[in-house]
């Protein structure tokens, strides 16, 4: 069953265990390296040599979609703040597989004894080769700073062999959070009126917070 359906029934200890498991699985996924940066494509024009260029183009595409669907967003401010912070992406040298949709609705769990354990992860439609940190806001979209998810972050750093979560990483998290929120705001045409209004309204408020953090 989906984690989303049972997470409220879990004890804190069980939920912490799920977060630690998720950290380990994401570290394994990120261990898969790609030949280029960007979304999966056979066209060389969409296979980028740097993460900075890939992310800029990926974000530009979703902003174009938002404009095409006449979604009200602070486009110019998003573009300006994005350009101001792109330098924090320059250190990433190796493309890693990023699931980018690993939230509670895409995680299967099963009961083993008294506790639930992760059984599977599905839905790789948003996957790309890029920065592993991008998976953090996609998995914890309600969390404005992944350092608040200490159990998960500590487990991920240990599983991935990283020693710290730097100030640059903090900025990168905000950039990727702004990106997933912009996708959520721009894609509301896919849903019914009420759900679209609720998701779009919430996403826009959170985008404003990201912009303030990054400005």
How much strand? 5-15%
Contiguous runs where pLDDT drops below 50 for at least 5 residues: none
- Class based on secondary structure composition and strand pairing: mainly alpha
Count helical runs: 8
Based on Cα principal axes, name the global outline.
Answer: globular
Strands, count: 5
User: In which range does the helix fraction lie?
Assistant: 40-55%
Q: How far apart, in Å, are the first and last alpha carbons?
A: 41 Å
Radius of gyration: 17 Å
Going across the biggest sheet, name each strand in turn. 1-5-2
Average pLDDT number: 95
The helix-strand sequence is: HHEHHEEEEHHHH
Description of the molecule:
It is a single chain. By secondary structure, the chain is mainly alpha-helical. Helices cover 51% and strands 10% of the residues. It contains eight helices and five strands; from the N terminus they run ααβααββββαααα. The chain has a three-stranded antiparallel beta sheet. It has a two-stranded antiparallel sheet with strand order 3-4. A hairpin with a 2-residue loop joins strand 3 and strand 4. The longest helix is centred in the C-terminal third of the chain and has 22 residues, at 193-214. It is globular, with a radius of gyration of 17 Å. The mean pLDDT is 95.
Task: Break the fold down into its secondary structure elements and pairings.
Elements: H1 3-6, H2 12-30, E1 38-39, H3 51-68, H4 75-85, E2 96-98, E3 107-112, E4 115-121, E5 128-130, H5 135-139, H6 150-160, H7 167-186, H8 193-214
Antiparallel strand pairs: 1-5, 2-5, 3-4
Helix pairs in contact: 2-6, 3-4, 3-7, 7-8
């Amino acid at each position: 069953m989906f984690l989303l359906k049972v997470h409220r029934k879990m004890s804190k200890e069980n939920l912490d265990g799920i977060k630690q498991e998720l950290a380990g699985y994401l570290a394994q996924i990120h261990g898969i390296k790609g030949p280029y940066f960007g979304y999966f494509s056979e066209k060389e024009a969409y296979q980028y040599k740097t993460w900075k260029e890939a992310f800029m183009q990926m974000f530009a595409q979703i902003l174009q979609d938002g404009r095409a669907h006449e979604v009200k967003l602070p486009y110019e401010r998003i573009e300006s703040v994005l350009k101001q912070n792109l330098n924090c992406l320059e250190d990433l040298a190796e493309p890693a597989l990023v699931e980018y949709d690993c939230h509670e609705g895409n995680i299967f769990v099963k009961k083993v004894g008294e506790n639930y354990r992760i059984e599977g992860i599905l839905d790789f439609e948003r996957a790309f080769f890029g920065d592993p940190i991008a998976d953090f806001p996609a998995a914890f979209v309600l969390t404005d700073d992944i350092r608040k998810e200490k159990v998960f972050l500590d487990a991920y750093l240990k599983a991935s062999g990283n020693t710290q979560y730097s100030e640059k990483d903090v900025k990168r998290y905000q950039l990727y959070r702004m990106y997933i929120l912009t996708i959520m705001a721009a894609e509301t045409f896919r849903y019914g009126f009420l759900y679209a209004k609720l998701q779009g309204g919430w996403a826009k408020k959170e985008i404003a917070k990201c912009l303030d953090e990054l400005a």
